[in-house]
Design goal:
nine-stranded mixed β-sheet; alpha/beta; Glutaredoxin; Rossmann fold; four-stranded mixed β-sheet
C-alpha cells in the first residue's frame, strides 16, 4: 500500500516536470529558429543558391557591396528582390540591400540615373557602380560583379586586316557573340593596326590572332615578335596548317602544326559529322580545372609544342578530342569522301588528339602566357552556344590577362527538373496514392493501434 502511494506520488511529480521541461525545450527551439537561420539547398543543381562560378567571384570581392533597388512600395515585389539578392547574401554577408521608391524620392532616382519604372538595381563596389535593369538573372548579376571586380583598363587586342574573325559581326563565321560576352564581363576590345602601332604591350593585356586568311608582312611579323619579346600575351587560333607568314612566331614558341584533319566517329551519334571533334579530355591546368562539359571543334587540327632551355617555355596540353577518332592525313574535300574514309594505321594518327596548348614562361613579376588552338570555329557565332565552348573561351581569356581568380566553373546540367502533371501525363496514380491511399492507410493504422492498446 505504501509502495503504491509512493509510486503514485512519483508519477504525479514526474508528469508536470516532464511537461515543464518539454515546454521549455519547445520554447528554446522556437527562440533558436527565430534568432538563428540555417539554410540548406537540397536540390541537385543548387537552384536555390548561387552557382560555383558566382561564389568564386564573391570570394574575390574584398569589401562591402551596396545594392540599391529602386522599387515601389509593393511588399510582394520587394520580397522577390530580397529573395533573389538573399542568395548572394548567404555567400557574402556584407552585401547591403536598400530600397528607394522612385515615385516618392524622384530626386534620388534622377541623381542615380534610373531608367526603368521599377526594380532597377544600382550595384556599388569600391566606388564603382553598375546598373541592372529587370528582368535579371544570376548570370546578369554575376556579370556585373565580375565587371566591378576587374580593375585593369588594358584591352583585348584583336588583329584585323588579314581576313580574321570579326568580334563585332553577327555573321555565322565571326565572333560577334563572343565579343559581346567579353564586353559583358568587363573587357575592352580594340583593333590595333600593326603598321602604325608603336607599342602593343602598353596598349593591351593580350593579342588575338583569329584565323587570318591573308599573309602577314615581314614588318607585321617583326612587331608581333617584338611584342612577344616584351612579355606580351597571345591567343592564336588556327584553322589549318598554313601559318600565313607567321612561321617565325611558331618557331619562337616551339609550335608544330600537323598535316591533316581530325575526324571523330562519335560525332555522328550527336547529330554532327565526322569533321566535328568533341573535346572530352582536359589537361590539368587552371583554364580547364574542374571543366567537365563537352566542347565541339569543327575541322580541328593537331598541334604540339616543345619547351626548351633556350626559349624557357613550359607547355601544357589543354584539350584532347576524338578518343574514338583519328587524325586523317589524306586530303579530302567532298562529302562523299567523308562518308567513305577509314582509319589507316600506316598513315593516320589514332585519337585522342591534342588540339589546344597553354604555353607560359617566367617574365618579370606576372610571367608571359600564350594559348594556341588548332581551331577557330568553336568560338564562332554558329558553334559558341554548343556545350562548354563559351565557358572555355572565357576561361582562356581570363587566364591570359592574369585574372586566374575569375576563371569560373561552368554551370551543371539540371537533373531534378520540374514534374509537370498535365491531362496528357499519367498523373492519376500519383494523385490517388498521395491524396487518398496514403492518408487512408495512416488513418487505418492509427485506428488499429488505438484499438490494440485499449484492449490491452
Amino acid at each position: 500500500m505504501t509502495t503504491s502511494k509512493k509510486l503514485q506520488l512519483q508519477i504525479l511529480i514526474q508528469h508536470p516536470i516532464f511537461v515543464l521541461f518539454f515546454l521549455v525545450l519547445i520554447a528554446l527551439l522556437g527562440f533558436s529558429s527565430y534568432k538563428f537561420h540555417i539554410l540548406q539547398d537540397v536540390t541537385q543543381d543548387n537552384r536555390n543558391s548561387v552557382s560555383d562560378g558566382s561564389v568564386n567571384i564573391l570570394n574575390q570581392m574584398h569589401g562591402a557591396i551596396s545594392i540599391t533597388a529602386f522599387a515601389p512600395d509593393d511588399e510582394a515585389f520587394r520580397q522577390n528582390i530580397k529573395n533573389f539578392i538573399g542568395r548572394y547574401q548567404r555567400t557574402k554577408s556584407d552585401i547591403q540591400l536598400n530600397f528607394i521608391n522612385s515615385a516618392t524620392d524622384p530626386k534620388l532616382a534622377q541623381e542615380a540615373g534610373i531608367k526603368a519604372k521599377g526594380g532597377e538595381l544600382v550595384i556599388e563596389y569600391q566606388k564603382r557602380t553598375e546598373h541592372l535593369i529587370p528582368p535579371y538573372t544570376e548570370q546578369d548579376v554575376s556579370n556585373v560583379l565580375m565587371r566591378l571586380t576587374r580593375t585593369h583598363e588594358q584591352a583585348v587586342m584583336a588583329l584585323n586586316g588579314h581576313g580574321e574573325r570579326d568580334f563585332s559581326s553577327n555573321n555565322s563565321q565571326d565572333f560577334g557573340t563572343f565579343g559581346q560576352q567579353l564586353l559583358d564581363k568587363g573587357f575592352k576590345l580594340s583593333h590595333p593596326n600593326l603598321i602604325t602601332e608603336s607599342n602593343l604591350v602598353k596598349n593591351g593585356a593580350m593579342l588575338v590572332i583569329a584565323s587570318p586568311k591573308a599573309n602577314f608582312t615581314a614588318i607585321e611579323v617583326a612587331k608581333i615578335k617584338t611584342y612577344l619579346d616584351a612579355g606580351g600575351n597571345l591567343l592564336w587560333l588556327l584553322d589549318d596548317e598554313n601559318l600565313r607568314g607567321l612561321d617565325e612566331i611558331a618557331t619562337y614558341i616551339g609550335l608544330e602544326v600537323a598535316q591533316g584533319l581530325v575526324v571523330d566517329k562519335s560525332a555522328v551519334e550527336f547529330g554532327g559529322n565526322l569533321k566535328t571533334a568533341f573535346g572530352v579530355q582536359y589537361g590539368d591546368h587552371p583554364v580547364t580545372e574542374n571543366f567537365r562539359i563537352r566542347t565541339s571543334f569543327p575541322e580541328a587540327r593537331k598541334i604540339s609544342a616543345h619547351g626548351t632551355y633556350e626559349n624557357g617555355w613550359k607547355v601544357q596540353e589543354l584539350v584532347r578530342v576524338a578518343p574514338n577518332g583519328w587524325l586523317e592525313t589524306t586530303p579530302f574535300r567532298s562529302e562523299s569522301d567523308i562518308k567513305t574514309i577509314n582509319f589507316d594505321a600506316k598513315k593516320d594518327v589514332a585519337g585522342p588528339i591534342n588540339i589546344a596548348l597553354a604555353i607560359e614562361r617566367k617574365y618579370g613579376k606576372k610571367g608571359q602566357r600564350v594559348v594556341v588552338i588548332g581551331n577557330a570555329d568553336f568560338l564562332s557565332n554558329t558553334f559558341i552556344i554548343n556545350g562548354g565552348n563559351l565557358a572555355l573561351g572565357l576561361n582562356i581569356v581570363n587566364w591570359l590577362v592574369g585574372d586566374d581568380h575569375l576563371i569560373t566553373i561552368p554551370p551543371t546540367i539540371i537533373k531534378d527538373g520540374n514534374l509537370n502533371l498535365t491531362s496528357e501525363s499519367n498523373y492519376k496514380p500519383v494523385f490517388i496514392g498521395f491524396q487518398i491511399l496514403l492518408p487512408l492507410g495512416l488513418l487505418i493504422y492509427g485506428f488499429f493501434t488505438w484499438w490494440k492498446r485499449r484492449k490491452a
